[in-house]
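pipeline/complex-builder :: batch 7 item 3
reading input block
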Amino acid sequence: MPGTAPEGGFALELRDVAKSFGSVAALRSGSLAVAPGSIHALVGENGAGKSTLVKIVAGVHRRDSGVFRLHGTDVDFGSTADSKASGVAVIYQEPTLFPDLSVTENIFMGRQPLGTGRRIDRAAMYAEAERLFAGLGVHIDPRRPARGLSIADQQIIEIAKAISLDASVLIMDEPTAALSGVEVERLFAVARSLRDENRALVFISHRFDEVFDLCDTVTVMRDGAYISTQSIADTTVDQLVAQMVGREVTDLFPKTPAEIGDVVLDVEGLSSAGLFRDVSFQVRAGEIVGLAGLVGAGRSEIARAVFGVDRYDAGRVRMHGSDVPAHRPRAAIRAGMAFVPEDRRKQGLVIDESVSRNVAGVIRRGLSKAGFLTSGAENRAAGPWAGRLEVKTSSLDMHATTMSGGNQQKVVLAKWLATEPKLLIIDEPTRGIDVGTKAEVHRLLSELAGQGLAILMISSELPEVLGMADRVLVVCEGRITADIARDDATPENVMRAATASIQHSPSQPVDAEVTA
Amino acid sequence: MSQLDIAASAQPRLQRALVGLAKSREITVAAVLVVIIALTTFKSDGFLFSSDGWRNLLVSPALLMILAVGQAVVIITRNVDLSVGSTLGLTAYLTGKVFIQWPDLPVPLVFVIGLAFGALLGLVNGVLIAFGRVPAIVITLGTLYVYRGIFLSWAGSDRVNASDFPSSFNELGTKAILTIPVVTIIALVVMGLVGYYLYTARSGREFYAIGSDEDAAKLYGLPVTRRVLLAFVLSGALAGLAGVVYAARYGTVSSGAGLGIELQAVGAAVIGGVAIAGGVGTVWGATIGAVLLITINRALPVWGISDFWQQAVVGALILGAITLDRLYSRRQERLLIAARDLAHAAPTKVGTAS
């Protein structure tokens, strides 16, 4: 368990906290103990349970079991207002401000200074905001609206809010993900001064250099459970990575060797402002290319741009050597692309429609006779595909909404395979699917690759990427930071590429200007 | 000059200009109103410079002004109240029935009854929306028909006439203080009170916060459900007040009273700069919007423009206002993305510095 209590006790203490959503255990046994005057790092892979833990502390979720203490007192928050009143402030990765209101109102909403007759004293409010900003060493016009502020400045607003609340526990959930170097420095300076005021800070980050630079203690989580707590001085990056990944890559993912053919998809210099930059890669026939990286690194955005759902600013996409026009999914389908999105229910299925109608949806044009579409024709087209993928439905008329996640995924797959694609882009193929069905989806993908289909697979599950992909492309902050062949790929080197960020890549032209 | 410097200097300046534009929305609408009145008066000076013209200019928008204030509060919380027309009609008829039953009732008490009855109907909306988690547009569309249906089955082809009201009540609809009609004064007082509340009270500001980002408001720990409920109660109460004023002004109430006025109220709020997406706007803007809407409709015949075009002009006004809002938010959005991209482009070197 995480360390012995310091003199005066922990500011924040969680022990064996569990939380389930339905049948999914998001947090099995989370523990975290933070001393006042300390900056405590919380690290772990995607889905390790960090965010759930934070949300319990913030009062967004209520824990199912376990101990939760603030300054030695047992607490149980039913709402975010409760946690705020107890001196807990949470700064989320994407700050949650009111875009239409002034930054000052964002700080003081609900507790504005009042003048005579319980009227809001705006002059006092602005003065107080100025004072807070001066203390933080930033120049933000207290009257400007929050809309249009950089993420860094939004975080400063959140921190100002926390200070004005006199929060004794501050949790920062990946605050540096969208910040530039200068902004990170500024944030760290603020964090250190808050620590020196004897507040307890929790810092969640995927960047180890930052963890080692800023924090004094680190807690590792994996698979919804506590793993270890160590002093930063006593650990190394390698030790942390080993503790974070820690699980075996099993044979659950039986990618059979397939003959790698010609280049099917060729992406060159794809860029989109604020999302990803200069992305180039190829996918060959029979090859499964895994796009690995942390949530929010820009993987899905890249896939959506390639398929033409979203626009991109520069670069080009080619299929079999000929250009695919940008921002036109139908042209992409004609060129032989298929796209199974991350959120099946929202983007992949007409959830209230029958299986056959879903499968036949994309090829409707080819099926209709004189503009009319008959159920018979739909069933005839859907039948073979549903059969091949072993969609377990009582009939093709069954509604998609009543099926399991695995079967829904198969219906989406069947729908796209009916277009006879050359390239399949699949985003998080096994999210929300139980373990048994996962293997089935993997076997299916492997089989399809064996038949010469080129597959671009986005996955946040490291074992899945390592087990399935012939080649792993690691995306970090909108850039491809590593291209690792199957045999060389290990959890450690993929994780490193996903976290070590872009400082190892050739410096960008703007670097000189900014640092100068 | 580095890219960051460019961003730092260009961004606030552009934004300040844009913010200025948004803030001056009420002024813009007021200016358009003045121009229209001036031009129309130039064409026919009776439009303003006659006792009738002056009175009509002030008295015609009064009902819509009251409704627009309530509607603005609801829209600011990112909802909409389509039932106000039916509430107005039902309350107006109730007012008549109350006077027929108790002819000697003091007039102020009847206003209280109207407000309370409207608030009750608004509460029904609010409860269904806040607790049923159904979009306001659906709920209030439903209650629009339900309230109107109740009105129809209660009134039938019956109507309340001016002779059913005490003369002191009827006089309210015609009386003026310093040439300003009493009903207009009522509307202005409503605007002043609600506007003052929204601007100066903590809970008033929370309406804006909720409309700006409801999820953020929940994370912030604001009483979202209570505020949304309050917005609908207020909107209903004001529609009830408008119903009493309707009875006082027109003297007759038939089952068609207030038919379709809810959309005019939404239009007035939108024209006056209340963003349909919530979080932005003032009741003073909505009120000016109401005056503009009514005044244009009265000015067009002076210019010899047919009834058909009157509707189209109102539509064009609404579309123009929404286009303006959209352009404004699009430009801000683009600025945000540009700023983020710059943040990305900058180096992420943090290494050994401490």
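note: The longest strand of chain B covers residues 176-177.
queue -> next item
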